[in-house]
Structure formats: C-alpha cells, structure tokens
Write a structure and sequence with these properties.
- The protein is an alpha/beta fold and 349 residues long.
- It is built from eight helices and 19 strands.
- The strands form three sheets. Strands 10-12-11-13-14-19-18-17-15-16 form a ten-stranded mixed sheet, covered by helices on one side.
- α5 links the parallel β11 and β12.
- α6 crosses α7.
- The protein starts with a strand and ends with a helix.
- The mean pLDDT is 97.
C-alpha cells in the first residue's frame, strides 16, 4: 500500500511528521491519548471506550500478527478516531489472521499515521496532559479541533434495541454504554438471563434481580439520562455492579463528582490494591476520568486504589449491594487476575 507524507498536529501547535495511506485525503480530529499495551491492538481498537480518540501505541511495532475474524473483536467495528504508531508491520504472520492492520484500517476508513516518534509524543502528553489533535496531509496550523468530551459519545456506541441473552435463571439488566463483547462473554458463563438494553432505556418497571452498568467512552457527566434512571434504580436496593464508565456513572448517581485525569490510564499493567485484603492485582484499564474521592457520600467507601497515582479504582456502598471497579476484570486485552469479581456479583443476586 502506498504511503504519503502526513502530519499529526496537536492543539498546542506541535507537529509530528509521518506517513499515511494515500486514501486519507481529509483532516481527522480526535483526542490524542496513549496506551502502554504491548499486544491486543485489535481488541483495543474495537473497544467502544476509545470512541473519539486518536490512539497512540507506545510499543514500537504494531500489526505483526494481523487481524483475526470479527468473532474475536470487542465490538462490530473500530471505534478509535485515528491510529498513531512508530512502525507498522506489513509482513504479519498468525494462523488466525485474515487481514493486515493497514488493510483493516482502510476497510473501516480509520486514519493511520506511522513513522511518528511515539516516545517523544507520549512524553509530551504525560507532561502536558492529553490534547486534541488532527491527522492531516497539510502542515498548516489548524483553526479548531472538535473536543469529543463535549459530546455524549455513549449515544454513538450503545445498542439501539433491547435483546435477551442466555434466557435462564435470575435476570440482570445490562445497561450498554459501549459494552465490550468480553464482558458479555464473562456474564454469559453463569446461569442468568441477560436483558441487554440501550443506555437510555428505562428498566424501572421491568422485573430484574440485578443491574450491570458497562464501560463506555467520554465524559460521564454527558450521560444525564443514564444517571437519572440509575439513581432511581438504587432505591430498589438490588445489586448493582459497574465497570469503568459504569463506576463513574454509579458514583454520580450516588451524589459524588468525577474529574478528568491528566493523561488517563490506558494499558494492561496498572497495579491496583484491594484495600480490604491488601492484595495487589495487575489490571487492564482504559479511562480518562476518575471519581473525586472527597465527594463520595459517607455511606460509600473506596475499596480499590491505583498504586501508581493513588486514584480511586473501586467503590462500594457500606451496607447495600452496590459496587463498581474502574479497571476491566474481563481483560481482552490484558490480565485476567480479577475475573472473579463477576462471580461475586452473581452471588449477590
């Protein structure tokens, strides 16, 4: 595939020159963030939590094992707004691969820029925080870049119609804010009925034994409809479990506040301590917002903490069966050290 000179231009005016496929003739806006994962690029790219973001892979070589069939993806399509790599492998090899990474990106019309000094770019983001940026063939200064965090990105990635999965046993309302397929796979292992619903579906009059709030993209404060329903659902005092964005939405429904992290947590090697047991777990993470600890109501407590920066990684109600984690116990990609948390939720029903 032929490549042309292209540029990544950040909102602070910084420019990085690289190469992009010839089909890319437009300017592509997004929020520039980085992930430290060494593997799992096709899972990350199909994770709806990355909607609106240009993803910088810090590992220097990407694409070396190609892309498998869609049954192994985390959703039906790529959700990142752009891909930024140091070196793209075109001579890939894997027995399950059916496309090269570059072919896959073109088929899904997702822009790529390669040949970027991703080490320097990552250091800039760590020092100055995540920034808006554009992948473009022109090196002229940009007049404006759309901030995806001012939009309700969950509306873009949630399912449109409700459905029933694994119709057996106790009933769980699965609120889709951009759910990863492996979360559904993990829940599907148990003898429960999954009522998979859109982010704004009002399930309060439905029969259910528990509520699951999924991961998703963007600023949690944009999801006011989801928060309002969840707040009323808490009055039923039935078990509620949230992951990632679901953790932030649960905290907002409880009356706490969230805030934007300087550069977020994205990767597969985030150490979190479980405060009650003092055990440390390696976790997979992908989020740019966090819970403001000092705003949690008195009847809530922090039960997981990030050992790198001390931020909140898990919360629970002191007396009611409400709890959530900021990390991804379902992994894909990443470690599966905390997959047992799903069983705890099932046992609470």
């Amino acid at each position: 595939m032929t490549l042309d000179t292209s540029f990544l231009i950040l909102e602070d005016g910084t420019q990085y020159q690289g190469m992009s496929p010839t089909w890319q003739n437009s300017t592509f806006d997004g929020e520039v963030v980085f992930t430290t994962g060494m593997t799992g690029y096709f899972e990350s790219l199909t994770d709806p939590s990355f909607a609106g973001q240009h993803l910088v892979f810090t590992y220097p070589l990407m694409g070396n094992y190609g892309v498998p069939e869609s049954s192994q993806w985390e959703s039906s399509r790529i959700h990142t707004s752009g891909v930024i790599v140091s070196e793209l492998c075109q001579n890939w090899s894997h027995f399950q691969g059916i496309h090269s990474l570059m072919e896959w990106l073109e088929a899904q019309q997702v822009p790529l820029i390669t040949g970027i000094d991703t080490r320097d770019l990552t250091k800039r983001i760590r020092e100055r925080g995540v920034m808006l940026g554009a992948i473009t063939k022109s090196n002229t200064p940009l007049k404006s870049i759309q901030d995806p965090n001012l939009l309700n990105l969950v509306e873009r990635v949630s399912i449109s119609n409700q459905r029933i999965l694994n119709d057996s046993g106790k009933r769980i309302i699965v609120v889709d804010c951009g759910i990863k397929n492996n979360i559904l796979r993990c829940l599907d292992k148990y003898p429960v009925t999954l009522h998979h619903v859109p982010h704004n579906y009002d399930y309060l009059d439905d029969e259910f034994d528990g509520i699951f709030i999924s991961n998703g993209p963007g600023n949690p404060e944009m999801c006011q409809g989801t928060i309002a329903i969840l707040k009323r659902a808490m009055e039923k005092r039935k078990p509620i479990f949230g992951i990632c964005l679901g953790s932030q939405l649960l905290s907002l429904a409880a009356g706490a506040q969230t805030y934007k992290l300087r550069y977020g947590h994205r990767g597969h090697n985030q150490p979190c301590i479980h405060l009650p047991s003092k055990k440390c777990y390696m976790t997979s993470q992908n989020h740019g917002y966090a819970i403001r600890e000092d705003t949690l109501p008195d009847d809530w407590e922090v039960n997981y903490r990030n050992l790198n920066d001390g931020t909140v990684e898990g919360i629970r109600h002191k007396t009611l069966p409400f709890y959530a984690v900021q990390f991804h116990p379902e992994a894909s990609p990443g470690p599966t050290d905390t997959e047992w948390i799903f069983e705890d939720f099932i046992n609470a029903l």
